[in-house]
Amino acid sequence: LGRTCPPAAGAADGAEEAGLPQDDPTGSPDRPHEWVPGYASTDARARGRFARNFVVQGSAADWALLLLAALRQHCADMAAELVFFQHDEVIVHCPEEEADAVVAAIRESAELAGRLTFGATPVRFPFTTAVVECYGDAK
Questions:
Q1: Which of 13, 15, 46, 100 could form a disulfide bond with 41, CB atoms 3.0-4.6 angstroms apart?
Q2: What is the pTM of this model?
Q3: Residue 79: inside a domain, yes or no?
């Protein structure tokens, strides 16, 4: 989705890839380089962690946004209401007679979001669903 990690601070444009060990010409045993957090860091671990988190979490957020939009459309003609979303959890409140349709809508929305976000891919985006009478019983 176009997410990349910029080169380390002080690196030649495009010369380094995120997460790969890099020689730091400014550091020496008697004068170690200063650690810079985040994407600008010359520290390979910090850069690698940033790049993975940025790419994975950012892409997951895009997918989740599309899933929620599709789910709202699927449920538009139902009494079902989206009442909660956080990270990887969606709670939909609906009458018992709509429960099966809502479960199907969640699965269809996840598939659509996957296609829209990542195109044709063998990767699947499964959901575990629980139909319960009380939110506290969902696991």
A1: 46
A2: 0.67
A3: yes
